[in-house]
Each structure stands twice: as C-alpha cells, then as structure tokens.
Design brief:
DUF4460, 14 strands, 16 helices, T cell activation inhibitor, mitochondrial, four-stranded mixed β-sheet
Length: about 500
C-alpha cells in the first residue's frame, strides 16, 4: 500500500530545503556561524540604534539562539525543546524581494519562528528561509553536495503534501508536524515553566554568588577610589565579564590614578565605544585598550566644557519654545555621544532661529520634548513627552505642540500616578515571594509591569523564593541564574 511513498516523502523535504540538502554533510560550529552571516547582518542590534525596543528584542533573541546552537553541538542533543524566537529583520538586498511580508516605514519587519531542528545545517537553513534570506552561499561550504547549481534545481510543486497519520503509524517514520503541533496546542504556562527550569536557575544562581560578591566589592572599591557617582553596563553582560572589565579599570587606576580622577562625580558606563554620552556619562568601550581609555580620561575637562555648552543650548531651545524642557531619555533614544547630540541640538536651534515661532514665554513650562534625527512628523509619546524630529517644519511643530499640550500634561500625570502604583506592586511582590532581586527590562512599560505584578500576587509560586526575577518578553534562565519571564505570562487561560 505504501510502496511508493518514500520518494514522495523525499520531495517534501526538498520543498523545504535545497535539493542538495539530503546528500550534504553536517556543518561544523564555525561553518554554521559563517553561513549565518547574512542573518546576523540583518538583525544585528547595532543597526537598530534608533529603535531601542527592537534592538533589545534582537539582543535577547540572539542570546537564546546562541544557547540553542551550543546545545545542538553537545553530545546527546537529539531532543532539544522547541525554541520560539522573534527578530526584527532589516531590509537588505537579499530580503527585499516581492511576495513577502512588507517592511515597515522604519525599514524592518518582525519575524517569528520556532526552532525544533536536530542538526546545525537544518537549523541554519530554517533560520535563513524564515527571514527570506538566500541559502545559496551554504552550498559552497559543503564539499559533498551535488554539483548542480541551485538555480538549476527542479522547482517543486507549491502545494504542500501532508500524509495521513496512518502512514506514519505503519511505516514507523516520525511525523515532522507532530511536535510543532503539540507545541502550538500546549502553550507554556508560568507554573509549568518554573517546574521545568526552577532547579537549573537555583543552581546557576548559587554558583554565581561568589562572583556577585566580588563584583560588588570591585564596584565599591573603584567608586570610592575614583569618587564616582556610579558604574553601570549598557548591555546584559554576565557577572564574570563585568568583573573582568572592573579588574581592567582597576589596573589602569593603579597606573594612572591622577588622570582617572578627572572622572570625579561622573557615572562610568561600559559599552561598545569610548567617549562621553549625551547625558554626560563616561563611556568605556569594552573592545578598546588601556591607551584609548587613558586618552579619554585626559580629555574629560574638554568634554565637561562641551557639556556646559550643550546645556546652554538646551536652555536656548527651551526659551524659543515657550519653556518646554529639552530632555534626553536613555531608555527610549539611541545611544549618542556628546558630540553627536550637540550637533543634533545645534541644527535644530539654527532652524528655530531662522523661523521664529511665536510661543508665549513660559506657556509650555512643565512639558518635555526629546529630539531625534528621524525625518518623520512630530508625535506625542504615551509617557507625555513630545518626540520632535530635528528637521521638523517649525510651522507644523507649533501647531502640533499647541493642539497636543493638554493631552501631554494628562499623559504625564497618568505616568506619575502609574509609577507610584508600579513601585508599590514591585515592593509587594518582592516581599511576598522573598525575591533576591526584582526588576524589568527597559522595553517593558509601566502598564505592562503593573498588569504582570497584579497577576503574580494572586499566585502561589514557591520556586521564586530567593530568585533574581526579571520581567521581560520571553522565558529564559540567564547564565548567572537570573530568571526572565514574559510580562504577559500565561497560567490556565491565555492572556490576550
């Protein structure tokens, strides 16, 4: 009855993967990374500087993908749990073809897929196909593939072939749709996820405690020695990585203590590049050598002077716009250096001078605005601040601000009220579950955090005792034991 089915099953696989896939050898870890270069180029967080939320989503998804790929290479990794990932994919030459989901006006689109593969090659192909990226370059990585060029491969029929369950029962073949269907039917709930991952999180957290104490000690010692306001990290590096960075800064302090004391009263941030941030924080690029750091500390007096000029420029813009305050919100804006932000303000100020807008003095006091380089129309954020493009038409800007001023004040009032409620719920949740630490990612809004905490307080979750809990957009146990759960976690009926 089923004597002719095997070749057809092979055609089903060829519809999903290139024709050479079935006769190819396994990829090594290095080859997989090389094959995924177009994907990394399309989703790399550094290209999403103007979009902090999308940048953070990609950073988190890349971390989870990295863990998946590592586990895939370990012995006995035949039954990995399905992993759901979301990426914001930039428009590139490879993925700008017709016949796919359109890109947003910002030049990217959201792509969601579930990984449930058993080897590196099929994983790489599935990721590239999911993001509408070419897979032709992979053939050159594989020495045992067929010599026929990909473009000459015979086109498979577009109609998908799905066999009856009896076929898999009689032949013993694994139904490729069964596991994914089961995943879609059984959504992860908070209690089930904690049952499966709680012990792992406890073990990782326990192992990280000595390093956490060492990190606190190093941070306190350097802060006191250099009289710093704070030491922070822009990215979610692990504890060991952070300790290494502080050790490096400590060695530099031993060699050039007087130079580093130029940072007195400042906040130091370990990030991707060295300089001074738009709000006056000292940025230390983690890839830079001590020589670059030393030069930065030597130049701090000139940065302080530029910072004073920048603040004066903000005041002048505020005066021309009826007293509205110009602010820079780190969580919502791209990371800019002091020079970049000053240039942005200067362009906007000169446009205002050429087109004087008749605002009544101090009529907009108490309102706030942020400035960006996007070439879009002005908008009002849900938190109450105005989002103003630096090249905005001054006439349109005046009309927009005047018509939205009262709504902005209402939004700011609601924001303050919501923040009070959020802090109370965070404190109550921390106390009820005896959490070691309770925090959220910047991309989680106060409304989402309030909703999450209210539902948490209705639960009995003994696994959370002593945990470091982060409210995020996904489930994950981080390398140092921090537990991430989505703000809209599900328990019983799905939360829409």
């Amino acid at each position: 009855m089923f004597c002719h089915l095997r070749p057809v099953r092979r055609l089903c696989l060829e519809k999903i993967f290139p024709h050479w896939f079935l006769s190819s050898r396994a990829l090594s870890g290095a080859e997989a990374v090389n094959a995924l270069r177009p994907f990394y180029f399309a989703v790399h967080p550094d290209f999403f500087g103007q979009h902090p939320r999308e940048r953070e989503v990609n950073e988190n998804s890349l971390k989870r993908l990295s863990v998946y790929l590592e586990n895939l290479q370990k012995p006995g990794s035949k039954s990995l749990k399905p992993t759901q990932l979301t990426f914001y994919v930039r428009e590139t030459e490879q993925n700008s073809s017709e016949g796919q989901e359109p890109f947003s006006t910002s030049g990217f689109r959201a792509v969601k897929f579930t990984l449930h593969t058993r080897d590196l090659l099929s994983t790489v192909l599935y990721i590239l196909n999911s993001c509408s990226l070419s897979v032709e370059h992979i053939q050159s990585l594989n020495t045992n593939v067929c010599s026929q060029p990909l473009k000459e491969a015979k086109r498979m029929p577009d109609r998908p072939i799905k066999w009856d369950k009896s076929y898999y029962y009689f032949t013993g073949f694994k139904d490729p749709h069964e596991d994914l269907e089961q995943v879609s039917r059984m959504e992860t709930t908070l209690t089930s996820w904690l049952d499966n991952n709680g012990k792992s999180a406890v073990r990782k957290l326990k192992n990280s405690l000595p390093l956490r104490k060492e990190l606190d000690r190093l941070k306190d010692d350097l802060s006191n020695q250099l009289q710093l306001s704070d030491i922070r990290w822009q990215r979610g590096w692990g504890i060991a990585h952070r300790c290494s960075q502080l050790h490096s800064l400590g060695r530099l302090a031993q060699q050039n203590l007087e130079t580093l004391k130029n940072a007195k009263g400042c906040t130091i941030i370990f990030t991707d590049r060295s300089g001074m941030s738009a709000v006056g924080h000292v940025m230390l690029g983690t890839m830079d050598v001590h020589h670059h750091w030393t030069k930065l500390f030597e130049r701090l007096p000139s940065y302080f002077d530029l910072r004073r000029r920048l603040m004066l420029l903000e005041d002048q813009i505020s005066y021309l716009l009826g007293g509205i305050q110009v602010v820079y919100i780190e969580e919502l804006q791209p990371v800019l250096t002091l020079e970049e932000y000053y240039s942005l303000l200067d362009v906007f100020y000169n446009r205002l001078l050429k087109n004087r807008i008749p605002f009544h003095p101090r009529s907009l006091r108490g309102l706030k605005m942020i400035l960006n380089s996007d070439r879009y129309a002005p908008s009002l954020h849900e938190l109450g601040h105005f989002n103003i493009p630096s090249l905005c038409d001054p006439t349109k800007l005046q009309w927009f601000i005047l018509t939205k001023a009262q709504q902005a004040r209402d939004n700011m009032k609601r924001k303050e009220e919501l923040k009070v409620i959020e802090n109370e719920l965070i404190e109550a949740s921390t106390k009820k579950f005896s959490l070691g630490k309770f925090y959220k990612e910047p991309s989680v809004s106060s409304i989402q955090m309030v909703d999450c905490c209210k539902r948490l307080l209705q639960q009995s979750l003994p696994y959370l005792r002593g945990m470091h809990l982060c409210i995020s957009h996904f489930y994950s146990v981080m390398q140092d034991g921090d537990v991430c759960i989505p703000w809209n976690w599900k328990d019983g009926e799905a939360v829409k």
